[in-house]
Amino acid sequence: MIESFALGDTVRMKKPHACGNDLWTVIRTGADVKIRCLGCGRVVMLDRLAFLKAAKKIMEKETE
User: Fold this and answer.
1) Residue 2 lies in a domain
2) N or C end of the chain: which has fewer CB within 10 A?
3) For the whole model, what pTM was predicted?
4) Is residue 3 included in any domain, yes or no?
5) What does the pLDDT read at residue 64?
6) 34-to-2, 10, 37 alpha-carbon distances in Å
7) Is residue 36 part of a domain?
8) Could you read off the pLDDT of 9-43 as tens digits, one per residue?
9) Containing domain of residue 14, as a range?
10) What would the DSSP string read from start to end of 11-60?
11) Edge-to-edge strands of the sheet including 32-37?
């Protein structure tokens, strides 16, 4: 489980997407978190708790 994340971070999830990729980019934060698959471009919205449980680690932090 990860502790903190920010807009634009690349996150590795515990389970792969149907396309086979497990890397996602955070595109919206708040009570819900919106992420985009880096393999196929599909956008998924999860509540914050579900996202924190499903995220394995942050692969790349967004630089300012």
Assistant:
1) no
2) C
3) 0.89
4) no
5) 62
6) 16, 12, 10
7) yes
8) 999 999 999 999 999 999 999 999 999 999 999 99
9) 10-60
10) EEESS--TTS--EEEEEE-SSEEEEEETTT--EEEEEHHHHHHHEEEEEE
11) 43-47, 32-37, 23-28, 10-13, 55-60
| pLDDT one-digit tens code per residue, 41-56 | 999 999 999 999 999 9
Q: How far apart are CA 39 and CA 20, in angstroms?
A: 8
Among the listed residues 59, 62, 64, the one whose alpha carbon sits nearest the alpha carbon of residue 24: 59
Asked whether residue 17 is assigned to any structural domain, the reply reads yes
pLDDT of residue 2: 84
d(CA 11, CA 32): 16
Encoded tokens for 34:
């919106």
| DSSP SS3 for 10 | strand
